[in-house]
Structures are given as structure tokens and as C-alpha cells.
Specification:
Length: 399
């Protein structure tokens, strides 16, 4: 569907079409009002993109839209189809065989829907993953979601404040925020209807992130009054091997971002951002954690507004890891080897004229195929002109 844009935006597009966009050849989906790049899941054949979309709601609320992408990068659902109605926050997606799982929240409640590679919806009604109808502040809840698959089942992880005592003031409710998870099988049945308690320690736990194999989970933890990166090993049968988690890194930096994690069979690499740089730490299968090391230098105080909140993400390619993040108005990446050698930083998506941001949102792969998505935003224009971009990432782009 072709939608009208302003002549200014057409001028920007015409100018950019004559310039290099970086290593990736991004596709932009021009849709009216604002869109924000969200999540991506890579299946054996097709890829699913899901994003926050205001085309139906303008600015008061938003929906989740998405499209499947074929092996050659062709969009199989045009400029997107509705995946979920009015929701709060972003969606998470995961791939398991021929199925995709789309997960979203509305207030304190979490729902999911399965779709096959052909685009057929497999559930007549949304799957109820977790509900809290008695929550005292439902309009103030914005759950942070993560989804993955362990080869047999889907996993969903989220922040949860069910342990909050009755009568807790609104400004103190974050002190009771814990990490929970649940599995959903291929038939769409929730195997853990009460949730799997991953971490229910004192203080605020937030931003959970599952590894793509659902064998590890990381989160930000404030149990000691400062930002900590915590993690726990997961197992399809034994579930949480490290209840409450163990520390991976600590920071006093107010700009510490959410962490991400990926494994290669021998261990995992966790990554996160601080105002001074992108950092990583290796975790052995025995729980031994390496000293944090710098992957790249950054400066949160000189980066454009908004870019400092784009947390780095990591995926495994063979025994190495590919790490992506946002630097200024560009999406960049590098390779980190199992020996902690960091390769040169490659600009993956950018506007060489400086007129448009290529913000980073999500990165996923299946070991051999990788896709990246984010948001294009005119530097001096309204958010009404934000659009979703995506592109295929060949691991060889990061030498």
C-alpha cells in the first residue's frame, strides 16, 4: 500500500537513494504516522519483524504490526499487518521450527499468539501467559518482555511485581519488581501457568533478556542499591539452575543499559552499555565469570538524544559473537572471538548526509542467517515520519 508523504520526506528519500547506507542494504517501510522498530525472529525459511505502530491511533496509543520477510529480503505482508490491538510497550518475538510466537502486554497482563511461516494465525484467541486482574496500578505498568525457544518449547520472560504488598504506594512499587518466565509448547499450551520464579530478591530487577537458545537469562538488578548485571542458567527440564541469579558485572553509571546474552555451547557472552563504552563478560558453563572487558568506547554525554538508551545486543556465529549497538545516528557492530579479541567496528546502517537517524532496535539470527531492524527518524522532523527499517546481516560483514 502506497501512502502519501510530505515533499520534504520525498526529497530526503531521493537524496539518500544516491548514497551509501553502510554494509547493510536497508529496506524502509514508509507508513503514515510513527513506527518504532521493535523485534525480529529468524526462522528456517522466513523472518518475522514486529514493531510499535501508530497508523491507526495517531499518538494516544499504539498497536503491534509486523511483516514476514522472505529469504531474499522480500516483504511478504506489504507494509505490515496487525499482530495485536492496543497494547502497552513493545512486543517480543521468537521462532521455533515453522512457528513464530508474538508476545505483548496490556498493563500487567501478558498475551501471545502463534503464527506459522505461511502467515496463518494458529490461535483463535490470544494465549494468556500471565494475568494480574487485581493489580492496583494497571495503567502504570509497562512490562519488559523477552522471548526465545529451546528447540522444544517457546520461553517468555518478563518483569513482575506480584509480590508487592497491598497498599504499597505507587512510587515504591518498583522495589517489588521480580523476574519471571514461562514456557509455551508448540500446541500453544502454557506449561507454567503460575510462572517460573527466576529472581525474587529484594530491590528492583528489570529488563530480562533470554539467550536465543533460552539456556541463559540476564537482567539489571538493584538489590544492593547500584546497577548490577545478573544472570542465571536455564534448562528445559530443570528450569532455573541458579535461582536468584549470580552477579556478572556491577556499575555506578546512571547510563548503564539493559544487558543481552548469547552462547556458543561452551559458555555465554553478556554485553551491556555504559556512558564510557560497550562492555562484555564471558560466562563459563560452570558459572565462572571473566573480568568485564571493553568492546567499544562511547560517550553518552555527546551522543544524540535517545541513542544512549539503545542497548547492545549479541548473537552467536560459530564460536564467535556478533555485537551490535547504536552509535550516534548509525547502527554499528563488531565481532568478539572466544579469546575476547574484538575486531574493527563496522557501520552497518547509516545516512551519510546526516539527515536521518538509523536507530538500532533488534538483532536476531539462527546461527547462519541474521536480520537487523530499527527506526529511521528525520533529524529535524516530526516523529510522525519515523519508519521501520530492516536488513540482512551477513556475518562476514564483521571481519
Amino acid at each position: 500500500m502506497t501512502l502519501k508523504r510530505t515533499w520534504l520526506l520525498f526529497g530526503i528519500v531521493a537524496l539518500l537513494s544516491q548514497a551509501s547506507f553502510g554494509a547493510i542494504e536497508p529496506t524502509v517501510l514508509p507508513v503514515r504516522y510513527g513506527q518504532y522498530g521493535g523485534s525480529v525472529a529468524v526462522g528456517p525459511q522466513n523472518t518475522l519483524l514486529a514493531w510499535i505502530d501508530y497508523r491507526l491511533t495517531e499518538d494516544l496509543s499504539h498497536n503491534i504490526f509486523g511483516t514476514r520477510v522472505g529469504p531474499l529480503g522480500e516483504t511478504l505482508d506489504g507494509d505490515g499487518v496487525g499482530l495485536a490491538g492496543v497494547v502497552t510497550g513493545a512486543a517480543a518475538v521468537a521462532a521455533l521450527g515453522d512457528q513464530f510466537l508474538i508476545v505483548w502486554a496490556k498493563g500487567p497482563n501478558i498475551y501471545a499468539q502463534r503464527m506459522n511461516s505461511a502467515g496463518e494465525r494458529l490461535d483463535q484467541q490470544p494465549i494468556k501467559v500471565s494475568e494480574n486482574p487485581a493489580h492496583p496500578y494497571p495503567d502504570l505498568v509497562y512490562l519488559e518482555l523477552s522471548a526465545a525457544a529451546d528447540g522444544n518449547n517457546f520461553w517468555v520472560a518478563w518483569t513482575d511485581d506480584r509480590s508487592m504488598p497491598a497498599g504499597t504506594p505507587e512510587h515504591l512499587r518498583y522495589q517489588y519488581q521480580d523476574i519471571y518466565a514461562a514456557r509455551i509448547n508448540r500446541a500453544g499450551r502454557v506449561l507454567d501457568p503460575r510462572g517460573i520464579k527466576v529472581c525474587a530478591r529484594g530491590g528492583n530487577q528489570s529488563t530480562p533478556r533470554l539467550s536465543s537458545r533460552a539456556d541463559f537469562i540476564v537482567w539489571k538488578d538493584y538489590r544492593n542499591g547500584k546497577a548490577l548485571v545478573f544472570g542465571a542458567r536455564l534448562n528445559p527440564k530443570a528450569l532455573v539452575l541458579d535461582f536468584g541469579g549470580f552477579p556478572i558485572a556491577s556499575s555506578t553509571d546512571q547510563y548503564t543499559t539493559a544487558a543481552d546474552v548469547s552462547g556458543n555451547g561452551r559458555g555465554w557472552l553478556a554485553v551491556w552499555g555504559e556512558s564510557s563504552g560497550i562492555y562484555g563478560a564471558q560466562i563459563h558453563r560452570t558459572r565462572a565469570v571473566s573480568r568485564p572487558f571493553m568492546i567499544a568506547t562511547t560517550n553518552a554525554f555527546t551522543e544524540p538524544a535517545g541513542s544512549r538508551s539503545a542497548a547492545p545486543q549479541v548473537e552467536t556465529s560459530g564460536q564467535d559473537c556478533l555485537v551490535l549497538w547504536q552509535s550516534g545516528g548509525s547502527t554499528v557492530g563488531t565481532r568478539v572471538t572466544s579469546a575476547k579479541r574484538v575486531s574493527r567496528i563496522v557501520t552497518l546502517a547509516t545516512d551519510p548526509t546526516g539527515a536521518v537517524f538509523y536507530s538500532f532496535a533488534s538483532f536476531a539470527g539462527n546461527g547462519s542467517r541474521f536480520w537487523v531492524t530499527g527506526t529511521t527518524a528525520p533529524v529535524s522532523g516530526s516523529w510522525f515520519y519515523n519508519d521501520v527499517w530492516f536488513g540482512a546481516l551477513d556475518a562476514r560483514m564483521l571481519p
